[in-house]
Amino acid sequence: MWAIFSRDASSSFPYELGEAAGQEDNRSVWRLHKGKKKQNGEEVSIFVCGGKDSNPGHIEAAKAAVKRLKTLRHPCILTYLDSLENDKQVQLVTEPVSPLLTWLTEDTLSPAQRTSAISWGLLQVTKALSFLNNEGSLTHHNVCASSIFVTAGGEWKLGGVEYCSSSDQYTFPTKLLPQLDVYNPPERFDPSKQRTTTKWAADIWGLGCLVWETFNGALDQSINLKNTSKIPKSLVPTYTRLVGASPASRPNPREVVSSLSQPGQFFHNDLVETLTFLDEIQIKDNNERHKFFSQLAGRLDSIPQCMAVNKVLPALLAAHEFSNAGSAVLAPLFKIGQLLGEAEYQQQILPCVVRLFSSSDRATRLRLLQQAGDLATHIDPATLNTQVFPHLASGFLDTNPTIRENTVKSIRFFGPKLNYQNLNVEVLKHFARLQAKDEQGGIRTNTTVCLGKIAGNLHPDVRQKCLVSAFLRATRDPFPPARTAGVLALAATQQFYNLQDVASKILPSLCMLTLDPEKSVRDAVFKVLKGFLSKVEKVSEDPSLREEMEAEVHQASSSSQPSSWAGWAVGAITSKFYKGGPTSSTPATTPTSTAPSKSGSSTPSTQTSSMAPTPDPAGRGAAEEEEDEEEEDNWDTNEWGSLEECEETPSPGGTASEGDGGWEDAEDWSGLGLGSALSTNQHQAAAVGALESAFSSLSTAANTITSIRPPNPQRQQPPPPLGDPNSFFNSLSQNTNTKGTTHHRPAAAATTPSKPSSDLGGWDEWEQEDVTAALSQGLGFSSSSSSSSKGDEARQQREERRLQRQREIEAKRAARAGPMKLGAKKI
């Protein structure tokens, strides 16, 4: 039984003593060690006094300090956690801290940050002294650099309470260490001055010594206090009062805090204001909190990293969890997150971010989407697919265009971590709908760009079905940047296409874009065409290269660099998303022209020769949705009709379902209709329709194009001028006539007068039979005597469909904003 009472208490002490922290201080009875809690490994600091050759006086002073510290609870005073006492040794456990002089010599702060950090530390020490002298009626009697300790968050804590006593006692304690005599005030040796002393006079003198040591190092002689060369000028007037010879002239600590906190004084700076607000955040109202958090991100640059991570970040997390600060805390939260290690980020910030994705606040969701690049590197795939993506996908359907656009952009970063179902099914389903049906051109453009960026992460089977269809669909978009994005995406992903798709789908579609109204689109098309043609030409010269060029078509992911000719497109498609605004040099407003009738009669139809890119709402808030709707109306008025006319390619059944690239049919990415096999007559009709669409904007060549007529021996046609865009087709007609091919023309067509020269470059003066026959013979198509009648039927069907579309567009426009002529702009 006696063994129980004689057991060593140190064996049951819940803390483990570690290595010494810093150099041994000969001005303190304590030796500072690192330590940790045995139960959970939590870091602490352990002050040790005594040992094998312990001094009994030091042991008594240490026990007195432990007793005093147990009764003092203040944010600026060292926090007591536990203690262990015996006759030979005393151990005092506190929060983890480091000595002030060690912290000042080891910090890596800039001069401005160092000054701000010191001002915050001196403010805390002054508040601690104010608490002791005024509220506690105590005098510390040991204020110096050896009694100050700094936490990981840069907070200065007052310790060294071995000589702390009541203020009613006007006697000075006897210091056990002679090195501490340098801090004794003048009245310590002059009894006459003790009659005018105050309860704070001795501690204010010590505060002056602390200020000097902070900027100069350890104090060796009291006479050195007169040297103020290294003390900031804004602090010198107050410092001289702190070390005044008369104790009655030394200010109260409360007065020091008040005077130095005035504008222009040493305690008045962004760091002190920020940390003071965080300490008092519980008594602030919602408006003050929101204003503070909105400005905090800009102030973080002047706050030392240790304070931002250990002081500001916990306050931000608490504010988000226990108050309605909303999205205002996200900007500083993410900025501080960049300073954290991976383990700290996962522990402190990631749980908060996962909860925020389920927020219904649009501002919060927008902030999260804008930080997708940083978040994606920290979120593990399991958390992303199960907890984040279901909420993320709702942004594709949001009514706010800014949310939809940023949701699309975020897939660029989250895509590599998404599972098969989320990436190859859910994401592509939303992309197909946005690219084909979204009313915002910028969103359609960025959908194409993002699809090109994540192409390497798609499953090979899915990739083969959707890429060509998606990018060719983009090349027919009315928004010029969207068409450019489609062309660049084709080049950037050229390694994923087999040569059969290149020859049958990609090259024919790109050729049609060589006459695009926008020069920026044409420039991109010519570069991409040269690249694809060179690729096909190499295989033609050496068929053994085909297997090498198609090596990545069925690979799960691509890590190799594209060929040199596509490198420029990769840089363009992966550099930036479209941010709105015109991307070409074509003026926003262009002259209108009259569309030719496809049945031989002229039907006036207003149609612009180039698209005017409408600034997209990328990066804008919901407050501009009204302006966006106005811009959408301009698109609808000027452009959509001509696009639909160009997109629909006649099929044997009179439908154009395949011309959409398979993106609008139940969102099925089955492939583009250009790759299907066509009969001879279908090829002829498709070629005529494509040529009509491609040349519909060449109004500048109207005076140089002449109509094709049957050979007339009495009138000789002059040769076309050099560079005439129709010279190629004129040569085809001449070759046809030379071979004796006779073209039968209907009587109605023969008596039709020539169309005005302003009609789209004179394309309407070309008889469809002549073009069909010329193409048939020049391009190797078979023709028959019934081609004329079939051409008339095709023209009549196209004219009927065009009139029907025009009536639908006019009805829709009348329902929305009353009657309006095509091409008219709203005022």
Automatic annotation (TrEMBL):
Protein kinase domain location: 15-267
Biased composition range(s): Low complexity: 582-613, 747-758
Biased amino acid composition, Acidic residues: 624-648
Domain of life: Eukaryota
TM annotation in the entry: none
Gene3D superfamilies: Leucine-rich Repeat Variant (1.25.10.10), Phosphorylase Kinase, domain 1 (3.30.200.20), Transferase(Phosphotransferase) domain 1 (1.10.510.10)
A Pfam family of this chain: PK_Tyr_Ser-Thr
Annotated Basic and acidic residues bias: 539-553, 790-813
Region annotated Disordered, chain positions: 539-565, 581-676, 696-827
Biased composition (Polar residues): 696-707, 727-740
Biased composition (Pro residues): 710-723
GO MF term list: ATP binding; protein kinase activity
InterPro entries named in the record: ARM-like, ARM-type_fold, CIK-Related_Protein, Kinase-like_dom_sf, Prot_kinase_dom, Ser-Thr/Tyr_kinase_cat_dom
Family: Belongs to the protein kinase superfamily.
Primary role: Regulates COPI-mediated retrograde protein traffic at the interface between the Golgi apparatus and the endoplasmic reticulum. Involved in the maintenance of the Golgi apparatus morphology.
Name this polypeptide is given: N-terminal kinase-like protein
Provenance organism: Scylla paramamosain (Mud crab)
Lineage, opening ranks: Eukaryota, Metazoa, Ecdysozoa, Arthropoda, Crustacea
